[in-house]
């Protein structure tokens, strides 16, 4: 089943059927990857446009393309953004459409992904537009939940840390809303609670959620999704320092617990390294799941899956 | 017919026969690209050395190499230039000649391309040396004129904007000088007129040209070639602001006109976006033509065309 | 014979047998490269992680991977390091291990390579950790000595310039210590003599060495290994300026001499360009030898040689 859209901008555009199809193709891609990749996208070129650097996301997309035999051209960072000072995103995408077969973009401004897609004559994937959306992260999170827990319907997920500015927990919430009986425990300091646009979404969709500042209420969930407090969101550095390590998950806290620990990475102390050796620790596997999920999306949007 | 040189530094080294051969091979490359590329340059490596970032030119060369099955290594920007502070361009090229099969270089200093070529034991292409030459841009411009107008001999071209510092209009002028009965209408403010070295070339070669500051005199030409006024050429910012948008081409001005609109891009306002939807607008197709022209040059200089 | 280790961090971990095996495979790789490469590493991905830019080393590794049909993903420089401010090297390597099949890292801090290797589940190669080790440079130096002189046992090598901070002469010394009857002439100003850790190694291993500040004592050796005085090692700029060009090798000094001239490059004046045309000048061939040596290491560590 081909996806009913050409560009992936937001998780909001996904139906449950689309999402399940992506997860199914991702599982096939994981098998292909384990066998060393194939040549499905041979002759195809991915343009990776990172106005804002994100090595993790970029390497994940680039290796996904290469595992399917495709090629990559990259523009990243300071030089790239300064160069195009003055050129509109729309013009850049019209130009890139002449060179490559599919484009991925990370950009610091919310709404930039929609502008880019509107001008792109090749398939376009949003790899994060500032505080906006990051749909491929949400899809790999969902894929990880399904792999680790064996199901998505009926899951109990605790989200911890910066729920206010944490783009990943927003995108994932919308995606989980497509499934049945998902229960959310939202754990954050008062300054960083889940915004109304997301809790409103929970209410509209009759999703069960509770809010607390006590991390212990998340330890018996199926999944505990830790997030980093991002320094760049705070004007006041002391405020950042105070909130940064309010929640630190340690091996001692997880003793006897079955909860799957996830984190979009990088972590800066929210999860002690003594957790890494536990079976609960899924965060590096989660990062690895980005590759098959992105292989699936690249192949599907190029009409090759 | 192989090209009678190993390195492409300037359009001045091209004869009409060379130029026509490059255009012919470019047209073949465009067909190959439309079929998804081939493996003509499999096993070959292009080194893309961008001391000065130019994402557009770099992506165009890199995808050209990849469409022919070749590989690319890239060095771009600040880190690259700071690293080699102290190393001569000649040493860098001697080193790169040990790694790659062909090299492309963009450098901010005029004359750097000649130095680089003198030390390169592999074929070398100048991708712009400051205010000097940018021969592959001129060749793709010429290829675009031929494709859009069906001929080059007898063409009437209006060049608009910053004719003084605009490297592209100089290189293109020299190349058009190889053809018959080309007529130039040069449209610029008094501060930015075509330099004597180029008008002298017109005179020596009996090329017809006229100078004006009225853009309306260009609207009935076969081609109107718009250029951007480059801020970096002005010490005085207010001078730049005053001249920047002296000529803005809009859809209204093109009503009933057949003129082909070209621009080397990026534009920063010289062409209204309402022109984009018109048949006249050839500038994004022009950017796309960079790929087959560079495929042709890479293949020809590697002896594979 | 597979190498008895998964990660290459230091030349100190190499036995004579390992070293000879690497040199043997390198010679085979040089033949493969001359025939245009092969597909030994098709489907494999190298992650090139350059926290500190080093275009020379990076391009050498990247082209080595490509000559064997493998793919490369790259993270380099300012953006990369600033992005991961806060993430440990161990976490970065755990993440990269999910994407690529082998990793190469250059990092400004001594000891970073050991940290990285400890967390890497894929083979890892140290491409320089600050003032620490740079084992692939030492191996390509050794390969060059063998090619140029026909042997390593019994060689007389003069090392010239900054022997105190010059990482390459330290790593090479350890490696030459595995061979028989190697004689060292150490030529430097008093401020930049070989550190005790290396001269102590000479003594423990009964290696013959002499120290002097007179470059003429090196001109009858088999190899004269010139080094650059690195500005970044000096707090006092005038001190740097004074020592920088204390030793400048010129064609006149080499008249009638058979000594092989080596240099890890870049040079900033220590070798006059009039030396380049002499048969003695091996430094660009030396740079070129980096490719087959790195092809050998990539293939051997991936279990494909």
Write the layout of secondary structure elements.
The structure is a homotrimer of 305-residue chains.
Chain A: H1 16-34, E1 45-50, H2 55-67, E2 71-76, H3 77-83, H4 89-99, E3 102-107, H5 112-119, E4 124-129, H6 135-149, E5 156-160, H7 167-176, E6 183-187, H8 196-204, E7 208-212, E8 223-226, H9 237-244, E9 260-262, H10 283-301
Parallel strand pairs in A: 1-2, 1-3, 3-4, 5-6, 5-8, 6-7, 8-9
Largest sheet of chain A: 5 strands, parallel
Low-confidence stretches of chain A: none
Give the largest chain-chain interface (CB within 8 Å). A-B, 25 and 30 residues
Taking all Cα atoms into account, the compactness measure Rg of chain A is: 19 Å
Domains of chain A (count): 2
What coarse outline of chain A follows from CA principal-axis ratios?
globular
Helix proportion of chain A: 25-40%
Provide the β-strand percentage band of chain A: 15-25%
Arithmetic mean of pLDDT of chain A: 94
Can you describe this structure in just a few lines?
Three copies of one chain form a homotrimer. The first copy, chain A, has helices at residues 16-34, 55-67, 77-83, 89-99, 112-119, 135-149, 167-176, 196-204, 237-244, 283-301, and strands at residues 45-50, 71-76, 102-107, 124-129, 156-160, 183-187, 208-212, 223-226, 260-262.
């Amino acid at each position: 089943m081909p996806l009913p859209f050409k560009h992936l901008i937001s998780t909001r555009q996904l139906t449950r059927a689309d999402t399940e199809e992506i997860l199914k193709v991702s599982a096939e891609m994981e098998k292909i990857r384990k066998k060393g990749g194939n040549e499905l996208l041979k002759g195809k070129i991915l343009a990776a446009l990172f106005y804002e650097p994100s090595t993790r996301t970029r390497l994940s997309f680039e290796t996904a393309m290469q595992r399917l035999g495709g090629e990559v051209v990259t523009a990243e960072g300071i030089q790239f953004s300064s160069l195009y000072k003055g050129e509109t995103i729309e013009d850049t995408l019209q130009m890139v459409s002449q060179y490559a077969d599919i484009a991925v973009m990370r950009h610091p401004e919310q709404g930039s992904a929609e502008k880019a897609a509107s001008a792109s004559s090749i398939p376009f994937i949003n790899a994060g537009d500032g505080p906006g959306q990051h749909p491929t992260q949400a899809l790999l999170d969902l894929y990880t939940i399904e792999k680790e827990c064996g199901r998505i319907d009926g899951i109990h997920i605790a989200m911890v840390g910066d729920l206010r500015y944490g783009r990943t927990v927003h995108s994932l919430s919308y995606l989980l809303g497509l499934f049945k009986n998902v229960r959310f425990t939202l754990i954050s300091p008062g300054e960083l609670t889940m915004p109304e646009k997301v809790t409103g979404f929970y209410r509209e969709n009759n999703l069960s959620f509770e809010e607390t500042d006590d991390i212990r209420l998340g330890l018996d969930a199926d999944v505990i999704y830790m997030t980093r407090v991002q320094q760049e969101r705070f004007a006041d550095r002391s405020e950042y320092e105070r909130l940064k390590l309010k929640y630190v998950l340690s091996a001692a806290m997880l003793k006897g617990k079955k909860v799957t620990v996830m984190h979009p990475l990088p972590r800066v102390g929210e999860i002690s390294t003594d957790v890494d050796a536990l079976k609960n620790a899924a965060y590096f596997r989660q990062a690895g799941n980005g590759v098959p999920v992105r292989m699936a999306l690249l192949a599907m949007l190029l009409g090759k899956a």
